[in-house]
Specification:
This protein is of the alpha+beta class. It has 2 domains: about 210 residues; about 130 residues, 2-Layer Sandwich (Heat Shock Protein 90), CATH 3.30.565.10. It is about 70% helix and about 10% strand. The protein has a 5-stranded mixed beta sheet. It has a two-stranded antiparallel ribbon with strand order 1-3. α1 packs antiparallel against α4 and α6 packs parallel to α7. It is elongated, with a radius of gyration of 35 Å.
């Protein structure tokens, strides 16, 4: 039964192609006998046989194509329906001319040509429709799988980090060693940061897939958080120049943008006295974030690495209808600049 459903659409198209060829041959053989010469009918046969031959090869292509039975039927339906539509339109055109008293010398020829062309055009349209439908189905399945894996990983990793945080709290409560207490504090801080980023992962995914709702968020608060994290995690001096508030139209995934830029500036900084400056400056229509450092600047190897690390930043900023770029910092270092649409406070 499955094999019949798979091959029947191909048989339908093959029968249509053979039928067109047979009808064309029979019609033009009759013309040869009636006109008593072969050049004209043979030329006409070559014209109206071409679409039928193309359809015959198309039927074979459909036979070997990796289409399931439902999609094969879609293609067959598009082809046969289009052939019928072209034939009816051509027939009605001829009928109108006959009704008006105008003589149509050979009505069968244009009907055969248009029917064949309609069948081929419908086949092509059907293939494009099925291809688009399959791509949409794959994208939908991939999206569901991504969402499932995202939920599972967030749940499992969150549980594991919760256990680590709990064990760190027990160690902190039972130790009198200041060095151990400091390390436990670092573990707890990093665990809390990881948990925050896990919670933010869903927002990032929704933003990239255009499912997130953008709303006014305070860029100043995100910049303060990123500056504090980097100051604690890296041996760099972090300076800030931040207004009390600076609202932009984005969402919580903006924290990832700021974190990546500030961490990148600190991580690659090889200066003897490394520093990072984080500044936020509101303008009339936008809010500008600047992350300035005195690192190695735009040397080729650092630039290549920075470009790779900025993929997520650029993707998110683009979804926020913003702009991100970087320039040289004089006399040494790099300046990352992000402009985001300004928003009124919520």
């Amino acid at each position: 039964m499955g094999s019949l459903r798979r091959h029947l659409p191909v048989a339908v198209l093959s029968a249509l192609a053979v039928g067109l060829l047979a009808t064309s041959a029979a019609h033009h053989i009759t013309e040869v006998a009636r006109l008593n010469y072969a050049s004209g009918p043979l030329s006409a046969f070559l014209v109206d046989a071409v679409p039928a031959v193309i359809l015959l090869f198309a039927s074979y292509w459909l036979h070997v194509a990796d289409f399931d039975p439902e999609h094969r039927w879609y293609v067959a339906a598009w082809s046969t329906t289009s052939a019928a539509l072209f034939a009816v339109i051509t027939f009605l055109t001829i009928a109108v001319r006959e009704f008006e008293g105008r003589t149509v010398a050979e009505p069968v020829f244009p009907i055969l040509v248009d029917t064949g062309i309609g069948a081929v055009a419908g086949f092509v349209a059907g293939v494009f429709y099925v291809s688009a439908h399959r791509d949409a189905e794959r994208a939908s399945r991939a999206r569901r799988a991504f969402a499932f894996v995202n939920d599972v990983l967030r749940h499992d990793i969150r549980n594991s980090l919760g256990v680590i945080r709990g064990q760190a709290a027990l160690v902190a409560d039972t130790t009198n060693d200041d060095a151990v207490a400091d390390r436990v504090g670092t573990i707890r801080e990093q665990t809390n940061e990881a948990l925050d980023r896990i919670e933010n992962a869903n927002t990032i995914a929704n933003t990239i897939t255009d499912d997130a709702t953008l709303e006014p968020v305070d860029l100043t608060a995100f910049a303060e958080t990123a500056a504090d994290r980097v100051a604690d995690a890296y041996r760099v001096t972090v300076r800030t120049d931040l207004p009390e508030e600076a609202h932009v139209r984005a969402n919580d995934a903006l924290q990832t943008v700021v974190d990546n830029l500030v961490e990148n500036a600190a991580e690659h900084n090889d200066a003897d006295d490394p520093w990072v400056e984080v500044a936020v400056e509101p303008t009339v229509d936008t809010v500008r974030l600047e992350v300035r450092d005195n690192g190695p600047g735009v040397e080729p190897d650092v630039l290549a690495d920075a470009e790779g690390g900025l993929d997520l930043v650029r993707t998110l900023v683009t979804h926020y209808n913003g702009d991100v770029r970087f320039t040289d910092n004089e006399p040494r270092g790099t300046v990352f600049v992000v402009d985001l649409p300004r928003a009124n406070a919520a």
